[in-house]
Fold this sequence. Notes:
By secondary structure, the chain is mainly α. It has ten helices and no strands. Helix 2 (about 30-40) packs across helix 3 and helix 3 runs antiparallel to helix 10 (about 175-205).
Amino acid sequence: xxxxxxxxxxxxxRADVYRLLALTLAAPPxxxxxxxxxxxxxxxxPLGQAFDELASRARDGDPQLVRARAEREFNALFxxxxxxxxxxxxxxxxxxxxxxxPLAALRADLQALGLERAPGVSEPEDHxxxxxxxxxxxIREGADPAVxxxxxxxxxxxxxxxxFQDLERAESADFYRPVGTVGRLFLQIEAEIGQEASxxxxxxxxxxxx
Length: 210
């Protein structure tokens, strides 16, 4: 899998990155996910280099040992005996409490979009993996760009960058460190694209005659 492949189209590439983040952050990586990650090939950009680093760590040794190390690391980072090193929920990052106002606002938006938590899933909807998955679905289904921007600006942008920075710096992180780098850089690009899109109507107005 090549990152930034122009043949996939910009939206296809965006959806792929969101889906990849969702898969790596939802649960310890399976053998098939590690194989997918190990086959990533980035370009010369910082984001592409982060993907190359993630690919390198995914194929660093015997696949069973890599998977076992990644599972231990996932548990230390996100589960722990009482709590993991990181708490990957929007409510926690934004208010210091779980299942707080950000979760209620997210649920209202998801309901308006006709989206709901899958049966058997116990994690609250404001888990970082769930939010990345929502973004991937919206992009894949061709949701209005305004809807995509609202979900990003309201439910990811206010906190996810800090989460990914924390993941990069976490003491328990090794395999997951480049995941943090990918997430941080990708969200920066998403924010820049959003700013350019919002500025476009102003440029058009500036170019019209009175």
